[in-house]
Amino acid sequence: MKKSVIFGALTVAGLAAGAAAAGTLDDVKARGKLNCGVTTGLVGFAAPDANGNWDGFDVGVCRAVAAAVLGDANAVEFVPTTGKTRFTALASGEIDMLARNTTWTFSRDVDLKFTFVGVNYYDGQGFMVPAELGVSSAKELDGATVCIQTGTTTELNLADFFRANNISYEPVPIETNAEAQQQYLAGACDVYTTDASGLAATRATFEDPGAHVLLPEIISKEPLGPLVRHGDNNWGDVVRWSLNALITAEELGVTSANIAEMSAGTNNPEVNRLLGTEGSLGEMLGLSADWAKNAIMAGGNYGELFEKNIGENTPIGLARGLNAQWTDGGLIYSPPFR
Amino acid sequence: MSDQNANPYAFVRTETLPELPPPARETGAVKWMRENLFSSIPNGILTVLALYFIYLVLSSTLPWITGGIWTTSSLAECREVLNGKSAACFSVLTERWNQLLYGFKYPAEAYWRPNLALLLLLIAIAPVLFFDLPRKLLIFTAIYPFLAFWLIWGGTILAPIVALLGVVAGGVVFQLYGKNSFAVGFFGGIIAAFVVWWLGGALIPEGASENAMLSAVPSRDLGGFMLNMMLGVTCVSLSVPLGIALALGRQSNMPLIKGICVIFIEFVRGVPLITLLFVASVMLSYFFPPDSTVDLFLRVVIMITMFSAAYIAEVIRGGLAALPKGQYEAADSLGLDYAQAMRLIILPQALKISIPGIVNVAVGLFKDTTLVSVISMFDLVGMIRGPILASTEWNGVYWELLGFAALLFFVVCYGISQYSQWLERRLATDHR
Amino acid sequence: MTTLTDPPKESFRISMLIHDTRYRSLTFQAIAAALLALAIWYLGNNLIQNLRAAGLNISYSFLGEPAGYDINQRLVDYDSQSTHAKAALVGLLNTLLVAFLACVTATIFGVIAGVLRLSNNWIVSKLMAIYVEIFRNIPVLIWIIIIFTIMTAVLPGPRAFRGDNATSSMVLDLFAFTNRGIYIPMPWFESGLFASPTMNWVLVLAVLAGSWFATRRVSAWATHKQEDTGVRPKTIWINLAIWFVPVALLLMIMGLTWEVPALKGFNFKGGIKIGGPLIALWFALSIYTGAFIAENVRAGIQAVSKGQTEAASALGLRSGRVMNLVVLPQALRVIIPPLISQYLNITKNSSLAIAVGYADITATLGGITLNQTGRAIECVLLLMLFYLTASLLISMAMNLYNASVKLKER
């Protein structure tokens, strides 16, 4: 901290120094803030509201980690990143973790040296077309003009899909979601493609959502999850198990409403281990015993976060689908706390 | 003609005729129109076309502007009020006014701080722009950067004070030793400043920023038009000294120094600003020590400063080249050394000729600060393209927001360019 | 009596390194070299350490791998299986294309606006002044976005052309103006002399070049005749014939036909498509830079003193020839140097294509390729290298031209 003041005096705007050798967890604790990379604005996942507070599903994950590590869900510095800057921001240590609907792929994991700690949303790329076109399948899109939001795996999936089906298309890559929508609504493209969740969120903001249909094809697997740098396994564990704590809490029925009474002690030993009244899981992670309790209290368990930000009662209106608990036939599954 | 009676003519008018008004086509509006609008057939056609064009533009925009709605809270509501009419939804400006000006994270209770900083900026910059003002005001100009830093970023007041003290110490050392040898004074001054900064930095207690008089605001929370202004002002003022140094270096007869300066200037001028911003956002963090991170604002300031320094250096080089060679020779023959000659004879004249050019670079740079929106900084354009257009309330409002941004930039840039033209007339002291 | 003696031989002292101007520059350069080396070492060392800590390396091998994405605007063959290097090449050519087009139109806009601003028609000159001030004082990024938005909103989508009660129709049944781009008829040859269409066009160009040489010869002959007899023979009809007859014959032999765009499926098919992003970027850059060039042109014309015009008129030159032979050549000398830097600005500003989805090199190499491979350092370095080379080449070419029109002082 000393160093930062000196540099601050030197450079006016200030260098924030953090001792990387000590490990990210110690850095975060010493700083008292978690630097979390998010998107520059995607309603439902991470977007600042009119008062400048960040809100959304990915933001909820950041807050849970901050609460687990620091005991304060608001001790997060949200760093907006673009598709271009996100990996550098993480690799250079500007952010401690990235929760920016980033798809877990082989090359990002192996070549770019990042550790995906889990999946918080199973997504897939879909298509939206105006209902008046009368298209019912993506395979009928031969010769169509397709608007894509750049900076994601979207371009590659799209090229693969059209190539595999031997049909042609014209891509129009657009930098921001808002501009892509504008092009789509003005008829400059026939189709808008991005992750199905994003399409739903986008359609929700249209003047007449009923005039647009989502095609049934989902052309890719997009497991979105938070990620950290390779090489700091301790920190990776903290983020991984914070996410798992949210998932397990839903599975075990621990909600932000009943967590106070449950943390007094229950008959279920796994709940007790999770909430720190039994065993020493927190200590093993290098955190306090009630870390998971804090994480859950930050914004509720996985299900609560989902319902509050992107669930069926929100304008975005996504069904749980693949993202239901494994006990309900979904893919959301946490390893046991033991 | 003494004899009036000898006049052979029957009638002689003895008083002058009253002046008749000139023919209608040679006077007033008609004459003006004949000369300025319909002097020839092609001219007449041009006039009619121009008038038609003006009519087209006004008839399509004026009803849209005057029918604008200012009080709704979302686009859907605005469309409801308009009820199918085509008119502007200016309510996005009223509702998001603070976000457009200050970004979405700057604490609302602290808006007075950048406002005050802007006001003080006008006072601080006045003696630089208008030579007639008393020179004593320059003292405030010297203090201003530290004051503005404290106002905008907040935190402990000790940091800017230490920074100021360092500069003062450097200046004092330079005054003491610079008389004998410029180099000793110069380097001594720099060392003195660093010593003060190091000592002061060590003396500032840890956590001094937490309970400071003004709450600390991280630079990531800066945004909106304020960010454009700050980037513009900071980078221009930092790049003027750097530009002078580069220009002098490029004129130097030391091959190594000249080479470094030429390569730097030509390299920076050869690449677009956006690639330099990419460097700032995706590359620069790899070049800092592994145990420190530099925030994006500072990285961007570094790159934009380099960018504008190269352009300003070329303007100043033009100013240096415009001075007659006799000035250099006269300075030499007085026995002045290089530093004295530059400081007392050459630079005051060269800078004076370069000021309009520097102002032009400054306007261009200020406009270019909008490019930071491409690298996820929320300046005015970034706020519009990012949070505001992405929000559910205002998704689909383009013209009002873009028009507002254009208007804001136009007012500032047009003001500066008018100043530059005034200055050019003012500096034209030669008699033509 | 005085004898000239050599000045006392000074032995070299350490203090001379600072006080003696002969050695001082050496000292300074040594210090500068040391500082430079130190800075490079420091930055390089940090880079190596950071990369090692992140487990990354600098490698350009990604350029040889398949890019995996498609590009809608391409001047060379490219598909999603081509390499990243090929994608960068496509982007590079697109940058050069839009920069070239914008340079041409910006010059036209600039000259027209600059001349009209000096016109004695009050309303026109005021209108041009407003144009110049509005475009010079608003950032080009905002202009690009505004023009792209206008284009998307004002022009109809292809859907508007469809059906019985279509709201839009093609102009003259030849041109289609849509918000995806402008479709124009494409000429092609039914019975070309060569198998490949490119060779046929090369042949047409060769014939045109031949005509150009022939007209030059005719002009030279006319000048010669004028010098001999004092009367310049009329060459206009000969020249026109030389220009048009051979090429028209050739086109007739090769069977020139036009492929007219038609609405098929989702889009117009056939003809030449000029993409919407290209038009928006092209127009925005031209009209923005045109405002700057207008100012340069105005300054250039005003720099030619009135005496020159009057002297030329006194010699009996007609007003057209006064402009061509006296005013413009002199104004050009003032206009060319700032014009060079405006052309450089266009090339550099074309990197803002990123805002309208035009696939220039910043959008391919510095955009999608960078996103997909995560090779930030390599991509940005290559990008800067390209712009640097392009800038240097353009300024070299234009400086050569400038040297050729410069006042020859002897």
> Could you tell me the strand content of chain C as a percent range?
5-15%
Mean pLDDT of chain B: 84
What is the CATH-assigned architecture of the domain at 94-106 and 222-427 in chain B? Orthogonal Bundle
**Fourth-level CATH superfamily of the largest domain in chain C:** MetI-like
Main beta sheet of chain B: strand number and arrangement?
Answer: none
* Subunit arrangement of the protein: heterotrimer
Instruction: Kindly report the spatial arrangement of strands forming the biggest sheet of chain C.
Output: 1-2-7
User: Radius of gyration of chain C, Cα only, in angstroms?
Assistant: 30 Å
User: The CATH topology of the domain at 94-106 and 222-427 in chain B is what?
Assistant: MetI-like fold
Distance between the termini of chain B: 51 Å
- Low-pLDDT segments of chain C: none
CATH architecture of the largest domain in chain C: Orthogonal Bundle
Regions with little confidence, pLDDT below 50 for 5+ residues of chain B: none
Structural class of chain B: mainly alpha
Task: Tell me about the largest β-sheet of chain C.
Answer: 3 strands, antiparallel
Q: What level of helicity do the residues of chain B show?
A: 55-70%
Helical residue percent band of chain C: 55-70%
Largest interface: A-B, 54 and 60 residues
